[in-house]
Amino acid sequence: MTEGLQLTVEMGAVMAILLLAICLFAFEVVRVDVAAVSVMVLIGLTALIPGYDGMVASNQLFSGFSSNAVISIIAVMIIGAGLDRTGVMGRLANKILKMGGNTEGRVIMILSSVVGLISSFLQNIGAAALFLPVVNRIARRGNLAISRLLMPMGFCAILGGTITMVGSSPLILLNDLIANSNQAMPDRPVAVEQFGMFSVTPIGLVLLFCGICYFVFLGRFVLPVIKDKPGESGNMLKYFREVYGIEGEVYECVVTKESPLIARTLSEIDAAGRAGWIVAIRNGHELVVAPRGDTDFWDGSEMAIMGRRDAVYEFAKEYALHVKNEMDVFADVLSSSSAGIAEVVIPPDSSLIGKSLREVELRKRYDATVLSVFRADDVIDSGIPELVLQSGDTLVLHINWSNLSSIADARNDFVVVTDFPREDERPEKLKFAAVFFALALFLIIFTDVRLSVALMTGAVGMILTGVINIEEAYRAISWRSVFLLASLIPLGIAVENSGTAAWIAQQVLFYLDGVPIWVLQTVIAVLASLFTLIISNVGATVLLVPLAINIAIGAGTNPAVFALTVALATSNSFLIPTHQVNALIMGPGGYQVADFLKAGSIMTIMFIFVVVAMLNTFYL
Fold first, then answer.
1. Which domains does the chain have, with CATH numbers?
2. Each residue's pLDDT tens digit, 254-289
């Protein structure tokens, strides 16, 4: 690092943009991907300053979109969707149940181990999304509390992302950031070393092992007990009644000629909260499940109302409806084999965040009736059409299973929690999926081909063999994550090229002069852990890797290990549900922020201790 480096106007400008980026991420002024793109464009506009070429060269400004990291993440998403399409997750659920039975500790151990190992190749958020319905099925069949299973699954999915260099976005991004750093400082005596696929495996395995032991031995003290999902599928109605206040009995009613409903629309009456939910209507020969608000009532219209018996009969009396003794018209379409109640989570990358349910038009798009919304520890069952969706919201829907398959396919916007019968799985393609997944791993381990090429080979192979079609592959890609990652790479280049990282590192070393290397490393790990709670893990990695490299060079230690410290510590996100995985499981698990603080505090300390100890023992 340059001795006596002086603060320049360019460094000040870069730090101002850094501060702007942190504020945009922390206060969510706009979506994180929009914030990242805005920062990238702002960096590009600095080239308009007379006599200045800009913070980043014009040919590097959009280089992130073709970077090894971004292409690798796209390929991993496609591979994960292909494996899911084969129905392999259902088979895994059956295996876990067979081995674990209904013993909570044993199920946690087996489930967490499997999820952790899978997330090492499919990214932690992808593995967690795939396993949500699996955990739901295991909890129901084993008569276990889902709140006691989801948090271990989610935490171990995050820990599993540290086992390989493709398990999490920060680790995928790390080598690209190191390459940019080497390019920005070509006069270094020795280039910063990059990492191989399994360079982090010993650390990741120890982290995963410690996490599993933590929940197996201390889970009874730190895991919350929230209303259980009953063991038998027929008792699922009881679960929805207890947790959401939803009565699951369905009654068939007919509009008589004296009814004041005639010539009125569905939106003009508010049965919800008094009678229940009108989940289907037949006017003449037209039968509609999850009718729209502008659906009108005729003399003789038939409707299916889900709610309490006394409330339905009171509603029928008020509006002159005839309640049939048994289901007739809607018996098939609303049978448990055709339709039912499902939980759907809005993931952190969903394009629906910030939109109202009226704008989303679930009735129109999927014939789905929103019964209630679970947000943090609140059940919202009034004013639903105008409710603006947030990350982690759990929607409770009444829907046909065939339409729920369509929602499940929109995996970037929804994550389906409820296990349901699917007709579009391709179990016969499992062997092709396994072959091309193994081929990708073979290319990564035994050849010098770039990571992106190896992973894309597996993804394209699955597409060509029909494991997943091209439209499904496009839907599997989280473009929000892609734009976030690609747009932040120029910011990292600017921080490095301008000397900003070197200057900040110089100040840090001045104030921490003489401390042991492990103390510096712990400071970096704690800083990365705090940053990832405030901004995205990708943003924290981009901002801190150049700083860590310069601090290590100034302290005379291995800069690659300090860079790796950042990439690992940005997965240390257990205290609050800001990590994508935590946001995903919060609704289905019925967790509150206090639950994460209780279970995550010990996990956070353990994570930092293991990472620093392992890196100092085996890598420095």
1. 339-416 (3.30.70.1450)
2. 999 999 988 888 877 754 445 568 878 898 878 877
